[in-house]
Amino acid sequence: MSNQKIKFGLVGIGNIGNTHLKYLSAMENVTIVGVCDVDKEKADSNAKTYGTKAYYNAIDLLDQSGLDVVIIAVPHYDHPTIAIEAFQRGIHVMCEKPIAVHVNDAKRMIDAYETSKETYPDLQFAIMFQERTLPFYAKLKEIVDSGELGQLTRATWIHTKWFRSQSYYNSGGWRATWAGEGGGILTNQCPHTLDMYQWLFGLPSLISGHAHIGKYHDIEVEDEVTAYFEHANGMIGHLIVTTAELPGTNRLEIVGDTGKLVLENGKLLHYKYPQSMLTFTKETEQKFATWEIEPEEVDVDEDAPNGHHVVTGRLVDRLLGKETDLIAEGPEGLGSLTLANGIMLSSFQKRPVQVPIDGDAFQAHLDELIKSSTFVKQVVTNSTAHEDMSASFGSSK
């Protein structure tokens, strides 16, 4: 193992920022050269804990710490601003999800990256889609990409294991506001689910979204969403999400011409059809039919390494000169954001929208919501300094 150290700096020491600091401090070939937060006490205490220097301004961290990589873990609106400043300095970026609040900002960020690569050709841009490493999702990707299911016809994902209490929403002034967060469940809880959908199936050509604003919580953003997707190859998709259900469901069905996958409760079942479903439909003389198929449980290595440290580890390996794929290249963040913005734009306009979506139309709606907001946020300060974030991370179970 090389003794070269990749120098990391972190901007944003909230709950997820602390998650990054914990695993970074345990990684070989990594040293933390600075932590940054506008809360000076938070920056100082974490700098002491991790034996590094505190910064209170992102530009100072970028200019003074000597870092190679910056991890951006600040509220969503600030992701593009800090990333662009880093790119212009030739500093590698690991950005927390989502890449941005709206597609216009994401494209601005990606354009800045591509422009900076002309000066710094080895510049790296990664995004933290750690759920791609979860064993069940990785296995789904493997099977779908193999073509074993044949032509895909439907994907239905009910993902309601995102319960958040009113207390959660009250715990931060920026949470669940148009001005502070830019949205609700689609912006905060579901970027991984949206990324997984487009990672498995690609982007649809048409989006029809139905978003309910503050239906179950005292918030001004969406907490329940149902979406319908049409793909160019004829496949349709459904997405049902909310932060208001207990115990909640996480069930994904993927139907193809030659088989079906069902993922739920930590089991991946594969229904292997005796013949092509679409051919049978066209050629059978039977008026009614059913196939009694005993599904096979797919073997999944649940102990395979997964999580945030795996995503960052790939970036470290690449920076050490190893030939390796990143878990998610930064520009891939545009896919999940296109779905999120498209669902909301469709809901705002009360009609289906084409993909690529009209980024200007979505941004105009968002700007108007911010401008016209009369919502008064009730903020309750929690005495718990750093909550255990593990319960908030998505799961494929």
UniProtKB/TrEMBL annotation:
Residues 6-118 form the Gfo/Idh/MocA-like oxidoreductase N-terminal domain. Coiled coil: none annotated. One of its GO terms (molecular function) is nucleotide binding. Residues 137-261 form the GFO/IDH/MocA-like oxidoreductase domain. Pfam families: GFO_IDH_MocA (PF01408), GFO_IDH_MocA_C3 (PF22725). This is Gfo/Idh/MocA family oxidoreductase. It comes from Paenibacillus silvestris.
